[in-house]
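Entry 14. Structure prediction run on the chain below.
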Amino acid sequence: MLRCGRSRGEEAASTEGVPSLVIDDLRAPFPLATNGARWQLVTDRVMGGVSQGGVACETVAGRRAIHVRGLVSLENDGGFVQIALDLAPGGGLLDAAGFDGIELDVCGNGERYGVHLRTDAATRPWQAYRQGFVAAAEWRTVRLPFAGFEPHRIAAPLDVRRLRRIGIVAIGRAFAADFALGRLALYRPG
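Output returned:
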């Protein structure tokens, strides 16, 4: 079970003075995000897999968070549990030009997770731009620069002016997923 805490004398990294665009800071009633879109839980069951997952908005280590738990299974060619969010309400496009990347406040069970970005060029469900991170046992702010996202089964380069959707994903190996998201934003240089 996830028991995220703070390291002694350590708070989540501050973004004070760094301009950002908040996508979700959990002020809206879950499953709504601050940007007006809705969070969704998606597992490999949509394609015949057997992975299981659940999501709830709850307090984790004194902080309101989206808490995702699940069991990722590779059976039946499966292997993922994710929460996903449209980056613009109504499924439109978000122009992230002028921002350096994605910033998330997360904690978890020490496992490696992924952030998957989709643009309007990603027309197949398996296409995305991916970058990984470790969800440490204490709250941390993780910055993932756009330059670090790798195309997965898509030839088009990442066009940050045409972002459609983001997923935070437990994927690719059999394991117990357990992570909490406290904030999601785009960050600018600085």
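Residues 3-18 have pLDDT under 50 and may be disordered.
Filed with the rest of this week's runs.
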